[in-house]
Structure of Acyl carrier protein:
Amino acid sequence: MNRIARPALLRASARAPAFAPVASSLRFSSISSSAALSTTFARRSDAITTFDYQRRHYGAAAGLSEADARERVIKVVKNFHKVDPNAVNEKSHFINDLGLDSLDTVELVLGLEDEFCIEIPEEQADKIQTIEDAVSYLVTNPAAK
C-alpha cells in the first residue's frame, strides 16, 4: 500500500468505525495489510449486496387494492360522528347523501389522511366529495398505506 493511501485510510477510520478493522491492520504490518484490506472489503461488499437485494425486494410494495381501500374508506365514513352509519354505501355523496357540510367534509378527509398515513394536497382534498372519489384517489396514490 502506498504512503498516501495509508494515512488517508487511518484518518477515515477515525471518522468511520466501519474502517477500523482495516486501519488497525495497516498500523501493524505492511505485508498483511493488503490481504486484510481485500478480505475486509470483500466481506463488506457481500453484506452490501445482500442488503441491497433485501431493500429492493421489500421496497417494492404492491400498493392498496381497490377493495381494501373501499372497505377502509367506508369504515372511516361510518365512524365519523355526524354520519348515520346505516346511510353509508359505496356511492354515498358526503354532502347530498350524508348531510355533511364543507367543513365536515374537510374533517372527513383529515380522517382519511390519518387512516391511510398520507397528506392529501388541498386541491385534491377539495375534489373528494364521494366515497368513490376517495377510493380512486387513494388507489392511485403510491404513498397511501
